[in-house]
């Protein structure tokens, strides 16, 4: 037995147990090596006219023997001599493929795509095999040689027999032990699944004998009651697709093919809403095929949802979901990125460093933004469906970035316009604003119907101003993070757009009253100081103030929030798991001094009926809360109070 030409036991143990984390990738590595061997022969045929190859010779075959517990990967590539077997397999981390790639870098161009670089992929076989036998015959040689090892101390090289050039890698799988089962690699389904998953786009056919059924010929003497009979047979099938759809010219691929690829590879039953690609050449060359789904996956907003694009290197799957390729606000995007320029780590399971990923991710984000704008402008109906599915994520992107992403994402948002009675963008809202409007007004709550009936919304509309009716739980937080918005089409510097404050109609002073109305409200408050003090005392800590409203027309009272926490924010935070500790809004009860109810309040105060003033204060306060969609503290007491008035 020959010893490995390194500190074999330690290094081989590192290869088998530390470098690779997923044992099923052994097949990916062996198929990649086989593809390299075929590529080398193909390249040689381009420079040596004496080598004539038929297309059927450029193939890789995978087979298994369940009884013998073996898996075999065979290729018809360039093969290896005895010395090459000794050098390539006996010296761990020696890559003949890398040497070939370096020696032929200028000549090979795009016709040859060598995958192997580190010379360790072969040893991943020992994760599943208790012994590995490699039988190889070099092209043009009459001799075949066998390399064999149990992956412990060393290996043997001896003469063997093989028909034709190429290499067979025969793995004798480990025995099952406890929870460790290797039987999945001894089944047609298991091997086909691994080939489709990791090596579907290797450029040469990966073939297997597969089981099929067919109907037997109908006997000539069969009567009318004859039932068809079927028989089983095996046939050599090509398992992989070979040519990635993202590397085919767009003119050669139909929309149906793109849709079928999306639904098959990303396990969706609905067609994507948009399909688009990126082709980049230069210091970092890559291809990307991206999809915007037509519907939201059921787990999109769950903690178990994992974003990311499938990452390929030279058509071989490296990561199923590379999270670094997508920002969180575009977590719904599906697709693939393929580049042969990525700097992979030794296991080819992750990347050596992330600067290349960041460059690709930046381009992907820019492309997605561009496509969404096109959809918004050219297919509004489709975009509204998209926003219904994924708009929450865009708003959350603004909120979670503390408003830093508003310049990129705000123009993609849609909100329901109370005045126009349709979804509009913020730019469309600004375009329709009357002259003199000082802010963008919005109302936040559970439903458009409820918000449209709110007295404050009606007041703002009566002034001629539009109100955006916001029903998503993140809307209020998004607007609070943005604070202001200006037209997206305008530039910077002297041409910078005027910034309009985003104002919740239920918070603070909207500054909608005329000077005359403000003066009248001040006089009313001064004349009724005793009443307002009594009302404030009756409500206690429930409110921070009771004032005269300059924003109400028909309603007797309303609740507004004076501080940074709005009523809607309080309601949403109260519904969270730790809602008991959620911050409260600074509630203000505003009274309509022109409403008949105010006269009743004043009469009770003048009559010195403190109990009636307290009763009316609580009724008005609870009514205002109900109108806002807020819970009242004691529904039973409220019901009893209403009943008492009716009795």
From TrEMBL:
Residues 572-647 are annotated as: C. SMART domains: HATPase_c. ATP binds at residues 29, 33, 75, 80, 88, 117-122, 167, 348. Keywords: ATP-binding, Chaperone, Cytoplasm, Nucleotide-binding, Stress response. GO terms for molecular function: ATP binding; ATP hydrolysis activity; ATP-dependent protein folding chaperone; unfolded protein binding. Coiled coil: none annotated. It comes from the Bacteria. Residues 22-177 form the Histidine kinase/HSP90-like ATPase domain. It holds the Pfam family HSP90. Residues 1-348 are annotated as: A. It is found in: Cytoplasm. CDD domains: HATPase_Hsp90-like. GO terms for cellular component: cytoplasm. Molecular chaperone. Has ATPase activity. Belongs to the heat shock protein 90 family. Homodimer. This is Chaperone protein HtpG. It comes from Rubneribacter badeniensis.
């Amino acid at each position: 037995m020959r010893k490995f030409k390194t500190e074999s036991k330690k290094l081989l143990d590192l290869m088998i147990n530390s470098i690779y984390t997923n044992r099923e990738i052994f097949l990916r590595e062996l198929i990649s090596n086989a593809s390299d061997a075929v590529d080398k022969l193909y390249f040689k045929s381009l420079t040596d006219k004496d080598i004539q190859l038929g297309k059927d010779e450029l193939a890789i075959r995978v087979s298994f023997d369940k009884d013998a517990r073996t898996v075999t990967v065979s290729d018809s590539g360039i093969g290896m001599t005895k010395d090459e077997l000794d050098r390539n397999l006996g010296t761990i981390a020696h890559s003949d493929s890398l040497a070939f790639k370096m020696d032929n870098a200028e000549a090979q161009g795009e016709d040859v795509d060598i995958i192997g670089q580190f010379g360790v992929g072969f040893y991943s076989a020992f994760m599943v095999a208790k012994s590995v036998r490699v039988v190889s015959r070099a092209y043009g040689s009459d001799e075949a040689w066998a390399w064999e090892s149990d992956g412990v101390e060393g290996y043997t090289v001896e003469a063997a027999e093989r028909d034709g050039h190429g290499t067979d890698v025969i793995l004798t799988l480990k025995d099952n032990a406890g929870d460790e089962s290797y039987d999945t690699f001894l089944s047609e389904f298991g091997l086909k699944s691994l080939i489709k998953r990791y090596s579907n786009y290797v450029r040469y056919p990966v073939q297997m004998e597969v089981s099929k059924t067919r109907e037997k010929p109908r006997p000539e003497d069969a009567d009318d009651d004859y039932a068809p009979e079927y028989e089983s047979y095996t046939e050599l099938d090509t398992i992989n697709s070979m040519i990635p759809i993202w590397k085919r010219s767009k003119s050669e691929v139909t929309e149906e093919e793109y849709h079928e690829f999306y639904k098959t590879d990303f396990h969706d039953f609905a067609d994507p809403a948009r399909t688009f690609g990126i082709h980049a050449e230069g210091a970092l060359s890559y291809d990307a095929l991206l999809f915007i789904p037509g519907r939201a996956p059921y787990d999109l907003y769950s903690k178990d949802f994992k974003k990311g694009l499938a990452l390929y290197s030279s058509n071989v799957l490296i990561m199923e979901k590379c999270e670094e390729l997508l920002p969180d606000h575009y977590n719904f995007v599906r697709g693939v990125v393929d580049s042969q320029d990525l700097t992979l780590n030794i296991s080819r399971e992750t990347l050596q460093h992330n600067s290349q990923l960041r460059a690709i991710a930046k381009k992907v984000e820019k492309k997605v933004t561009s496509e969404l704008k096109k959809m918004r402008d050219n297919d509004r109906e489709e975009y509204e469906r998209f926003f219904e599915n994924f708009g929450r994520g865009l708003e959350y992107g603004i909120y979670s970035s503390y408003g830093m992403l508003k310049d990129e994402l705000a123009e993609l948002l849609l909100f329901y316009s109370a005045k126009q009675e349709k979804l509009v963008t913020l730019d469309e809202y600004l375009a329709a604003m009357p002259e003199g409007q000082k802010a963008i007004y919005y109302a936040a709550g559970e439903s458009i119907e409820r918000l449209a009936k709110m007295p404050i919304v009606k007041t703002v509309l009566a002034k001629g101003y539009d109100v955006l009716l916001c029903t998503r739980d993140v809307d209020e937080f998004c607007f609070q993070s943005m604070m202001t918005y200006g037209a997206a089409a305008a530039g910077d510097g002297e041409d910078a757009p005027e910034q309009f404050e985003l104002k919740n109609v239920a918070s603070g002073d909207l500054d909608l009253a005329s000077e005359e109305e403000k003066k009248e409200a001040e006089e009313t408050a001064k004349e009724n100081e005793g009443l307002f003090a009594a009302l404030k005392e009756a409500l206690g800590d429930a409110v921070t103030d009771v004032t005269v409203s300059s924003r109400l027309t028909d309603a007797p009272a309303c609740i507004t929030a004076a501080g940074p926490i709005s009523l809607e924010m309080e309601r949403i935070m109260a519904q969270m798991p730790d809602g008991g500790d959620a911050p409260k809004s600074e509630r203000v009860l505003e009274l309509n001094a022109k409403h008949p109810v105010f006269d009743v309040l004043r009469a009770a105060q003048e009559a010195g009926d403190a109990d009636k003033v307290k009763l009316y204060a609580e009724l008005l306060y609870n009514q205002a809360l109900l109108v806002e969609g807020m819970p009242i503290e004691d529904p039973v007491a409220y019901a009893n109070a209403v009943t008492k008035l009716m009795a």
